[in-house]
Recover the amino acids of this structure.
């Protein structure tokens, strides 16, 4: 049915040496940051233009050959693994800023650019792109997985920050969705259907993103608490009070230990909040005072403030290394990150239950999270060769997912479904899942666009 | 093909006297606020529960009978007109607040409640729902048309404010999309596919909406300018400076005349901005000062400030009557409101061109707009019996729509496509339109959900 070899021959004729079947290149594109087995593609293509992506997809459509987009490879749910073989589209050569429209507070980019590279290019404009998942992900990948991260509590997720996009559809057709205007009521919202579709409905080849002015003043702080419940209750009251936090991140005692090990952080091994305030100098002072008052009610201690750019960067660099710092606590093991998100009022119950359950099961588990959104990650080491440990870890992650649904939340706040969360799609979406399948069948009837992702196997 | 009479018989058996075929009831539901000819349905149903809506749609599906949802009837593009006959579903009896979750800053409602009624019910909580299209529309209708209005510049449109929803699909299946968590990366974003789908993909039966804390301080002002370009350039610089305006509304000289006529406003007949600031007392002062400085650069004069609730209410009540105030300038005529939205940098060109062109054509045209979003409305009176005037008005609205597209904008910022804007769908969406048709064909293969809306006649 799938004619992969003939597709590769035709692609080689189109792309020349920008189509690779070298083992090293294929292996690199078959790796992942977590626990999925390596899954190399049959070939890797390096397109340079939308027109080329269109031609590639048209060739693949002719041969029913899977096409899997690839940005920075930083996905945590195996999104870029070609589980049905086929061709990986690496967007490394489509990484340019096409237009900075400072006067309209937006930027037009190719999908392969990373968020750090984008912000470096924007520096002279006084504007920045706020969404920050930690990893230096590609913007195309971030849009495709509806990523968010530390600043979503203030600036929203990729959902709120993609204004318009261009995509290549399953037969090679190029479409544009959205406009450069800030809002529209014109027709079905295909932009937001493609954002978060993980390359299964269309391949994003261009994005128009909203930008923000770099705040006049930025101030950051860490503080610690006696219990994780005190830290989380501080978050809940802060959010309910409407303080416009730019960042409010939970770090539990095990995560603090990980930072000490991996980043020589010298933190007391207690639950912490890492916070940041953006605005005018007066506004930042006002927000910081209001937050400090709430934190004090819950016994916050050891406040460490910094307005200095270098010190703030070091603090967030440490925070962004939480993935590796968690992994470092379980040497020699694979790493399994979870990603539930619950209504803010249920956050204390969720976090405390997660911590208690991990202890009960004897797991080395860090907790870190974008708690202003109700989103947190448990990071667990797992030895794939130890069946008993695998069972314990799977029991733990299953408990977390079901707890999130029971509390009115979601099994993934920002990592996406990919391979790892398909088993919860029916429980989370119920009868709505059939309508997702209908869209997929209608847009990609041959199932060539990143097949095997999002939708669990079933009546496709 | 469509068996309307048998459907009505079956519905009467289900609903008893909550299914009406009385001429007065049908006529009332066939009216509209603008220039579309009256189009009464064959019957009007008044469901009381989601289960009943599901049963009604299942009956209609069996008979291929059109089903058209109806909220407050305040649509400006004929959305609720049953142009292929069938049954109107009036949500007047599904107008309850189901749950106020103050601790999570959201509320669960039935679609028939109006925004004013919702905010009245919320008053004791210290929270409010910010989206304000002017008309006292139903929330279901606002979600279905992706409405926005005066506060979208600060709080976003319905797109940003619907967290989750329940809908009845074309065969009567009830689905739930989204969760009570603030974000999710779980699967295709059906919530935002249904928001703005104008009842053509599913009928919204429940909404979970984000709420905001009532600001500690609110201050509003009007000021006037010598030219509309000065007013608009003030807006552009204000938005580019990142001042978090809660409202920033343009009123041109003809609109000021309309307010004087309709609301005895006593305004100088010059271009005005109506603005509002929300925040802490300090933040409001800081924002107002920053705005005042920019406005002064463009010669703003006659600043009239008010912090008083009653005075502010009176000011926005006048503003919200712009539809009727515009209409009042052209007695005996029908009223045609336009709704383009352009990138903010193109706003001065768009507004000045619109004004010049209306003058050149000898039209009585008001301009009012949510200019912080780049969105403005020209309101033109038209005598449907005067073919020459109809042609002039149609030429004018066509020029506006094409100008918006040329400037990178959209033909509708917030009113929706309905009947009036279908002719621009191909120009605005190009090849993407085929994917909208594919979704409609897949979700509603018999074309019974609000048929004849959004998608222009063609290969359906």
């Amino acid at each position: 049915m799938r004619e992969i070899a003939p597709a590769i021959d035709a692609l080689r004729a189109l792309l020349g040496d920008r189509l690779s079947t070298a083992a090293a290149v294929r292996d690199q594109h078959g790796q992942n940051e977590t626990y999925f087995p390596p899954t190399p593609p049959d070939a890797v293509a390096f397109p340079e233009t939308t027109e080329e992506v269109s031609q590639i997809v048209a060739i693949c459509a002719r041969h029913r050959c899977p096409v899997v987009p690839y940005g920075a490879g930083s996905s945590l749910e195996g999104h870029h693994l070609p589980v049905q073989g086929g061709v990986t589209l690496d967007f490394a050569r489509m990484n340019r800023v096409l237009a900075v429209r400072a006067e309209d507070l937006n930027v037009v980019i190719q999908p392969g650019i990373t968020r750090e590279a984008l912000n470096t290019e924007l520096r002279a404009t006084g504007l920045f792109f706020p969404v920050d998942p930690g990893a230096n992900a590609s913007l195309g990948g971030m849009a495709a997985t509806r990523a968010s991260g530390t600043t979503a509590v203030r600036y929203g997720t990729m959902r709120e920050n993609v204004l318009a996009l261009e995509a290549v559809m399953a037969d090679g057709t190029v479409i544009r969705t959205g406009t450069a205007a800030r809002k529209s009521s014109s027709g079905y919202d295909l932009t937001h259907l493609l954002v978060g579709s993980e390359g299964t409905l269309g391949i994003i080849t261009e994005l128009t993103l909203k930008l923000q002015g770099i705040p006049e003043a930025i101030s950051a702080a860490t503080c610690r608490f006696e219990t994780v419940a005190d830290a989380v209750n501080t978050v809940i009251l802060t959010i309910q009070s409407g303080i416009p936090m730019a960042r409010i991140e939970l770090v539990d005692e095990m995560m603090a230990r990980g930072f000490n090990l991996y980043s020589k952080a010298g933190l007391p091994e207690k639950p912490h909040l890492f916070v940041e305030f953006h605005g005018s100098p007066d506004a930042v002072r006002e927000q910081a005072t209001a937050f400090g008052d709430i934190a004090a009610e819950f016994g916050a201690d050891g406040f460490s403030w910094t307005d200095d750019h270098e010190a703030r960067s070091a603090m967030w660099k440490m925070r962004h290394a939480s993935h590796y710092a968690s992994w470092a606590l379980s040497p020699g093991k694979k790493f399994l990150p979870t990603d539930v998100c619950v209504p803010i009022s249920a956050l204390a119950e969720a976090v405390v239950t997660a911590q208690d359950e991990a202890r009960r099961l004897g797991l080395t588990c860090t907790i870190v999270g974008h708690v202003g959104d109700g989103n947190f990650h448990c990071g667990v080491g797992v030895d794939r060769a130890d069946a008993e440990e695998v069972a314990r870890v799977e029991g733990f992650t299953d408990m977390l997912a079901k707890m999130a649904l029971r509390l009115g939340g979601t099994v993934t706040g920002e990592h996406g479904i990919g391979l790892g969360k398909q088993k919860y799609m029916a429980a989370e979406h119920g009868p709505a899942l059939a309508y997702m399948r209908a869209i997929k069948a209608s847009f990609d009837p041959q199932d060539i666009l990143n097949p095997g992702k999002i939708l669990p196997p079933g009546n496709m």
Residues 97 and 109 of chain A are 4 Å apart (CA to CA). The two ends of chain A are 16 Å apart (CA to CA). Chain A has a mean pLDDT of 96.
